[in-house]
Specification:
Blueprint: E1 2-10, H1 15-38, E2 49-50, H2 53-58, H3 61-65, H4 71-81, E3 87-97, H5 102-119, H6 121-125, H7 132-141, H8 151-169, H9 178-185
Parallel strand pairs: 1-3
Antiparallel strand pairs: 1-2
Helix pairs in contact: 1-5, 1-8, 7-8, 8-9
């Protein structure tokens, strides 16, 4: 089985599709690549998967994963359980973000949060340290010259996160979030 990482592309230039695309590109994508590169996870990502029909039948077909919250993840587990491997290509596929309203956006985000909580409860609990907003807020509340213990480490971590987001943004014209630039100057 083969899967590809993916980034977000807004279906139209409106606020909610752009926010959703940014979430995919600046949060999901770096985390998925990090998990794969460090061996923490061997993800099977639903935006782009290829599997032989015979392998799919051997693992129970789509019926096996029909009611699964994380059907892509469950399919990857089933394939590995049968002794096959799942290859993750670093070719980035663009996934359309088409949320029209805030309710669509929040429903999508909630589903992803539930999926992560189900797959990796510890990672879900610790996800606060990978979300830039929390680090930005914590860093901005600290005084630049010694007002907070560990400030320089926090500042360094924010810069690393900003640089990774900006390097991804270079390949996605029009999706550079202003908050990432601001955190460098806090």
């Amino acid at each position: 089985m083969v899967s590809c990482v993916y980034s977000g592309a807004p279906e139209r230039p409106l606020f909610w599709p752009i926010m959703s695309a940014m979430g995919m590109s600046y949060s999901f994508l770096p985390n998925a690549v990090f998990a794969a590169a460090t061996g923490l996870e061997a993800p099977c990502l639903g935006a782009s998967m290829a599997i032989r029909q015979t392998t799919l039948a051997e693992v129970g077909g789509f019926e096996r994963i029909a009611n699964a919250l994380a059907d892509d993840y469950e399919l990857g587990l089933a394939v590995r359980a049968e002794g096959y491997s799942v290859a993750l290509l670093m070719s980035v596929v663009r996934h359309n973000a088409g949320e029209k309203r805030i309710s669509d956006f929040l429903t999508h985000e909630l589903r992803w949060a539930r999926t992560i909580r189900m797959i990796n409860p510890i990672g879900y609990a610790l996800s606060a340290i990978t979300h830039n907003v929390g680090f930005r807020r914590a860093g901005c509340r600290c005084k630049p010259h010694g007002g907070c213990a560990g400030h320089s480490g926090l500042r360094h971590w924010r810069k690393v996160r900003c640089c990774s987001a900006l390097s991804i943004a270079r390949s996605h014209a029009g999706l550079v979030p202003c908050g990432y630039f601001h955190c460098v100057t806090c």
